[in-house]
Every structure is written in structure tokens, then in C-alpha cells.
Amino acid sequence: MAILRFKALESSINRTPIAVIPPSNKVSDYFATNVFDKEKMHKYLSKDVFKQVQEATSTGQRIDRKVAELVATSMKTWAISLGATHYTHWFQPLTGSTAEKHDAFFELSDEQRPMESFSSSALVQQEPDASSFPNGGIRNTFEARGYTAWDPSSPAFVMEGPGGKTLCIPTIFVSYTGETLDFKAPLLKALSALNQAAIPVCQYFDKNVTHVWSTLGIEQEYFLVDIDLFNARPDLEMTGRTLFGANAAKSQQLDDHYFGSIPARVYGFMVDLEIESWKLGIPLKTRHNEVAPSQFECAPIFEDINLAVDHNSLLMDLMDKIARKHHFKVLLHEKPYAGMNGSGKHNNWSMSTDTGKNLLSPGNSPKSNLLFLTIFINIIKAVHDHADLMRAGIASASNDHRLGANEAPPAIMSIFLGGQLNAVLDEIEKSVKDKKMTPEEKTALKLNIGKIPEILLDNTDRNRTSPFAFTGNKFEFRAVGSSANCGHPMTILNTIVADQLRTFHTEVESMTKKGTKTDEAILKILRKYIVESKAIRFEGNGYGEEWKKEAKKRGLSNVTTTPVALDAFLTKTTLSLFERNNIFTHRELEARHEIMLETYIKKIQIESRVMGSVAINHILPAAIKYQTLLIDNVRGMKEIGLAKETYAAQVEIIKEISAHIVIIKANVDEMLEVRKKANSIENLRSRAIAYCDKVKTYFEIIRYNVDKLELIVDDESWPLPKYREMVTIR
Ligand code: ADP
Ligand code: MG
To answer: Which atom of ligand 1 has the smallest separation from the CA of 302?
Structure first.
């Protein structure tokens, strides 16, 4: 194994960067060439059909069979012209990665003549076996079959691989009885709920608004590690993170990696990733080094949220494929290395209207500013009322390492507004009166509201420690994990905001019916929300211990572990929230909850097993070998008559090694027993908690002792690549 380590190290040092040549110097020459977008549809479809498809896409209506047939034919012609031989429905099951099942266009006609074919039925619906995907027991009680259905609002694309090209059709994935089994279907439902709820609210201010949608820009953090070093680490290979590893003497303490110059090999990877992304219509814009050594980030220009989520899933897949080409492995795990920063996925989120307004961007008049404030305050209220659900939406075994680890937002949900907007909210709280306001009072308040500057983006006024921060013209949900499918937290966010906006509208209507003027009703209700949601507003340091105490005083939850955080999915509040917005039925929520618990258990179980086997099969043999070497040495020294003091150091190390070995062995054995016990627990939640509170607690002590051994044992015989070797990219 040590030989493998050195071989891996040698090849990682000797690699030459792979240069990549873009199809053109201008990205606009080849952006979205592999996407069946509006432009291509226009070219391949008659005007009339094109219009029908566009309409159906923007309104979310069904596309009729005849039109679908024409779309399928043109899609096939286009894809074949690019060299595609196969097609697949491309979907996002609850495994967390994307799924595809390829079929050839090739077909035999009735006369057994070979031909290329792609029918509307192949475009619109397919039937993958639902029982092979996580379904939370839905398949046991209902039909085993599931189907994927075309999402015309996300354009089809041609994926290139070394072996050929495939037409990919974005689809939702549902069980035969209609339960959603993926991340896309609920998101689409939440977006529809948001649209319906936001329109009447926007119309208080602008009658021309007839469509509201969400926008999302996802910043993706990741680590790169040389593929040979990766392959020499069974823990990394099986769990996505290093279960062992002493900290390198030099890690991120000098802060010299962030925004530093990009190593040539990494640069080659980034350029390649960008080219392939651009071809697929992913609008990547930014690339840079991140805080930890060998950590990087890329970010696209924001898009319609459904597309942004699809693009992020596609991007993660591309990153993996392209990294391999450059002899890297991309690590999307939230915490690949202990003691170094983890990776997140900042979700920059806002809402837009068909009148061209970003609803989180203040305007230049009191009226447009009041619209901005209405949306803004309703979002704050929604996050306040459903903070536990927001927390549950980002819960996973891997993200648990990150939240609250003094480098990422804590598990406490809070919102950062910035000084200016805090002042505006305080002002409204102070000036809006319960009784009827005088015209002078109203004018004074409107004047103040009109004063909100159009540009709020002030970089000095930024708080990087907040899990949910307002950043000038959007909210940034920073607690999302780097490996997550954003569809999940975004379904939650859009649903709670939709629900809140509907409540707001109802409240305003009932007040105006009783004779209050609309603008006064709006202000009064907003004031009420400001008061009610005060506890969630926090401008200070979210990483500090002080905040934990303060949050407790305010009655905010701080749930640090996944199995308990997930409870928020099954509270009465959540169940009725999702049901009244037509996002999830009770059955679906229970199924999802079950899947998330199962995933958690499996992840910890795998980590525990890998930990045991690496400790016993890799670490202990190396330690014992080195110890034997020392024993031989001591024996030799004794034999030639040297004094005891001359080999005292060796004896000391021999003893130290023994002590660590004893602890490691005992704890691995004990952990196995505890795991067995946990496995016998029938109730899923209790089993998950047992894995979290019992099994996982052994990780720390086993790791501690292994890492101590790493610092003692001869470098030449250490079996695993070390941190300093893995995080240094040459
Ligand atoms: P940061 O300083 O946090 O990196 P940027 O301005 O670079 O901020 O934006 C980060 C992300 O936010 C980008 O993906 C960007 O496109 C996205 N973004 C900007 N405006 C919006 C918006 N209105 N809605 C959603 N995302 C947005
Ligand atoms: Mg950001």
C-alpha cells in the first residue's frame, strides 16, 4: 500500500496540464449549440407549431399529441444532425444524482427495414422501473411502475461522451399512482403556486403583471484531487470524504489560496468544463480559487429557477466526467477534509415579473419601493414561520459536518438584511399606527420609503456568516450543501413564500373590505409581520458562540443533526402547508422523510464500515510493521550492550504505538457491536438517531488515534496518501 501511495504521488507530481482548444474565441459563437432551444425550434418547426409550444411552455399547459409528434420529429432531425444516435429521458430521482436510460433512434420497420425513429410517445413518456429508485415504500403499497414525463419548460440537449452522443430530454419522475419520486416535479408545483400567489399581490402595485417566476444563480464549490491519490484512499472512494488524515502543517491558515492564481492543471480542467458547459447552454461566468487549498468555485449567470436547477445537476455530472479527463477526481462532498473549510452551494434567489421587474430590487418611486418591501417582508415572515423546515431542507449526513463548524453558517436559521433595510423596517414599525393614519403621517412614511436607494449593493455591508442573507437584489441561501440537488431546498423556499403571499393577500382583502384603503392596509399588515418575525433578523457574527446563546433566548432552534432536523417535514404545520399548496400529499412527505432517514443511515453505516476496515486492514498492519522494526532495533542495541538511555526513545514510541493500537482495536470492535444493535431497531427515526448519537461517536476517537499514528509511523510505510500530498496541486 505504501508503494501505491508513492506511485500515486509520483504520477500526481509528473502530470502535465492538458491544454484545451475552444471551438471559437467567442463563446457566443458556440453557446448552446447542443441545446434544442427556442432558436432551433424556430428553425425546425412551423410558425404555428412553434407558437403553440412556446405558449404551452410559458403557461405550463399540456402540449397536445399532434404538436408533440411534430416536436419529436424535429428534435430527432436536429439531434441526428449533431451526431446523436440515442435518446434518453433525463431525470433527477431522490438518489441525488441524475438518471438516464438510453434507447437508440434505430428501429426496424414493419418490413424489418432499419430506420431512425423517435415518436411523440417516446418524447412525452417513458417507464423506467420505479422500484429501483428510492421511493419510500410507495412501490410496496402502490404500483411498482413509475414513469418519466417530458418537461417542455427545460430544453432538450445533446450530451457528448467518448462513445457517442445522446439526446437528453429533461423529465419529471412520478409513480404510476401519481406520487412524485424526484426533485423536479415538486419544484414545478411550487413555482406554479408561487406564480398564482404572487400575481394578485404584484397587481396591487402594477396591474400589468401577469406572470411571476423565480430566478436562481448557484455558486458551486468543489475540491479537486489527483485521481491516483484519490484511488489510493478507500475512504474517499467509498464515502466521498477522508475518514482519517492528520492536518498538514500548512493548510489554509495563511489564506493564500483564496482568489490566488489558478494552478495550470486546474486551469485546463476549468477551461474544458466551461467549454462543455457553454455548449450545453449552462451560462458559466465566474471561476476562482476558494479558501481551502485545492478548493475552487464556479458560478453561472442566474436563470429561471427550473433551468438553473437542471443546469446545476448537469454541471455536477459534467464536472465529474471532465475531471477524469484531466486525471482529477472532483469532490462535491461538503467536507472532504477535516480541519479545512467545507463546500457549499450558495443559492442566489429572487423573483421576476413579466413586466421586467426583479421583485427584490428597490425601484425609483415610493410605489415600486413599497412593492419591493412587500415582497421582502413577506419572505422574512415566511422564513421566520418555517425556519425549521428551511433547516430540514438542507439536512444531510454530509452537510452536518459543515453547518456550525465555525466556517459555515450555523444550523440556526437567521436572516441578514443589512443596515439600510433594517432601518427602513424599524421605521415602518415605529411610524405605522394601529389607528387610522393621518394623511400627513402617510405622506411622511411614503417619503421615507421612497428614499430607499435603487442600488443597495454595498460590499462593505456584507455578512458572510449568515445562512440567509439579503445581498442587494436577491437573497442568498448559503447553508445549502455542495452536493445537494437545489430543487429540494428551493421547493421549500418557493412554497413557503407562495403560502405567505397568499395569506398576505387574504389579510389585505379582508381589511380593505372593512373600509381601510389598500395602501394603508398593506402597511399595517407589513408592520404586523415585521413585529412577528423580528426574532429571525440577525446582523452579527453567525459563527460566534454568542449567537448560539442569543438565538436560544430568542427561541430559535439550533438542530445540529439530520435525523432530528428532518422531523420538521412531518409537523402539522408542514403537512398542511404542502397540502394546501398542492406540493406534497401526506403520503409523499412521509415517503420523502423515510427516504432521507434511510439515506442518512446508509451513509453513516458505510462510513462506519469503511472506517473499521481501513483501520484494521490498512492502518494497524502499517503501525505494527513499524513497531516491529523498532523492537528489532531495540533488541539489537541491547545485544551489543548499549545503555538503556540510548534506545529509550524507541521504547517510548513502541509503547505509544501499542497504546493507540489498543484503543483503535477496542473501539472498532465496540462500534461494530453498537452498529449491530442499531440495525436491529425497527423504527427508522430511532435507528437514524442511534446511528447519529451512538455509532458516529466512535468516529472521533478512532480517527484521533489513527491520526496520532500517522504522526509517529515512518513516512515510507504509511499506507494512505496524506493531507499535504492530496491538497497540493502541482
Ligand atoms: P457574489 O458577490 O455573492 O459572488 P454575484 O453578484 O457574483 O455575487 O452573484 C452571485 C450569483 O448571484 C450569480 O450567479 C448571479 O448571476 C446571481 N444573481 C444575481 N442577480 C440575481 C437575481 N436577481 N436572481 C438570482 N440570482 C441572481
Ligand atoms: Mg455569493
So the answer is: 16
Which residues constitute the domain of residue 93? 31-182
Whether residue 702 lies inside any domain: the answer is: no
Cα 302 to middle of ligand 1, angstroms:
6
In a domain, 261, yes or no: yes
Amino acid at 631: I
Under DSSP, is residue 399 helix (H, G, I), strand (E, B) or coil? helix
Distance (Å, rounded) from C-alpha 283 to C-alpha 573?
38
Coil, helix or strand at residue 215: strand
C-alpha span between 59 and 54 (Å, rounded): 9
What secondary structure, in 3-state letters, does 313-381 show? HHHHHHHHHHHHHCCEEEECCCCCCCCCCCCEEEEEEEEEECCCCECCCCCCCHHHHHHHHHHHHHHHH
Binding pocket residue ranges, ligand 1, CB within 6 Å: 215-217, 219, 299-302, 348-350, 358, 471, 473-474
Continuous segment of H or E residues that includes residue 296 = strand 295-300
Ligand 2: distance of its center to the CA of 468 in Å?
Answer: 11
The Cα–Cα gap between 45 and 51 comes to 9
The amino acid at 642: L
634 CA → ligand 2 middle, Å = 58
Global confidence as pTM: 0.96
Per DSSP, 77 falls in state: H
Only one residue has cell 467509498, namely: 238
pLDDT digits (tens, 9 = 90+) for 177-207: 889 999 999 999 999 999 999 999 999 999 9
Q: How many CB atoms lie within 10 A of CB 617?
A: 12
Q: What gap in Å lies between CA 263 and CA 225, rounded to an integer?
A: 12
Q: Taking Cα atoms as reference points, which of 658, 720, 632, 646 lies closest to residue 237? A: 720
Length of the chain: 730
Which three cell numbers, joined as nine digits, stand for 535?
Answer: 426574532
pLDDT for 604 equals: 98
DSSP result, 226-253: EHHHHHT-HHHHHHSS-S--PPPSSSST
125 found inside a domain: yes
Looking up residue 116, the CATH number of its domain turns out to be 3.10.20.70
Alpha helices (H) in 614-696, listed in sequence order: 620-639, 648-679, 684-690
From residue 471, alpha-carbon distances to 290, 300, 343, 462, 476 in Å are 20, 17, 20, 7, 7
Domain total in the chain: 2
214-271 per-position pLDDT tens digit:
999 999 999 999 999 999 999 999 999 999 999 987 767 666 666 677 889 999 999 9
Strands 84-91 and 99-104: antiparallel
Q: What angle in degrees, to the nearest 10, is found between the helix axes of 586-613 and 697-712?
A: 30
Residue 706 lies in a domain: no
